[in-house]
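Quick one:
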Amino acid sequence: MPGTEYFGEEEKKEVMDVLNTGALFRYNHPELRQGMWKAKELEAEVCRYTGAAYAHAVSSGSAAVACCMAASGIGHGDEVIVPPFTFMATIEAVLYAGALPVFAEIDETLCLSAEGIKKAITPRTKAVLLVHMCGAAGDLDGIQKVCEDNDILLIEDSAQALGAFYRGTHVGLFGACSAFSFDFFKITTAGEGGIFFTNSKEAYDKADTFSDHGHNHVGDNRGMEDHPFLGFNYRISELHAAVGLAQMKKLHQIREDKKRNKTIFKQKIAELPGLEFRHMDDPEGDSGTFLNFFLPTKEKAEETVKVFSENGIPGAAYWYTNMYHFINQWDHLKELRAAAPLAIHHLGAPQDYSNLELPKSQDVMSRLISFGIRGTWTEDEVNALGDKMKETLSKVLA
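Output:
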């Protein structure tokens, strides 16, 4: 799945542009740059592709989510509704903003459900942090309505969903602000890096300032501007931005390649009895990074992972037991183990994280297999692997 499979001369050229000037810092030093500002170019390319009015490149997708918290005014004691299926960075951003995560159910979209959100709302709920998992959108129609009806902010963590659209609009543009990740495992990668993006000038200005120690960058002479409020260092380097820029210019082709190969796999296994695909309200908007399907039972899913490995079928993820992406394995969260006390230690957790009752999420995750799609597989390779997958699944489902 990672964009590294598309690395070539374009990435090398962008990086050498930076090395040849010596201007590694994203601000200042115009005399060195020869007119090149890679972070600014990356931001412009993200806006061009997504249609966002504003984008700000930062050091990671995690940093971009932290910027979303700051730009949305999320702070001490605010409750933020979050999914139990995500990368831990989503939860960490809430905690380190001084806010309190409240977990709600996901459904077969692999994202928070509108019904799950409704049940998790309290008088202290400030926002919903919707994560578009595995390269496709959640139920944006239903979730937007819940947020509007309850006067709650919608924030979108789109770290895994660059290249995903919902009814013609790129994900991340339905709420107050959003985040992309450019880490090693994303559809486009810079090794590390992230993007905060929004259609709100006010939110953009807050994120821009927050991500650079409170500098407001007015006058384009960093170090001599005002400091409207406290921030931290979430700056991206020009080197990472250079790689991200080259990758963004390839995103259209990467997405098309992945969607083509995913379609072949999906067609081969579509008629297998007992197998169901992830629900998507807008299949055309899918980025093509994962083929997600459900087995009839947890036991069948576990067997599938085992026989895939035995038969040399690569790229199958079983998130139910994965240490990074599902709440069952987050013992450090359940026990609120932190390097130093957080607001949640003083205010108390809004839920007992060790004994959460999320039966729908547990059922969905226990039966889910996610198969990573490479865009650079040839048609022969996809057909051969797809035939092997169909044969293997047929035996499991027999």
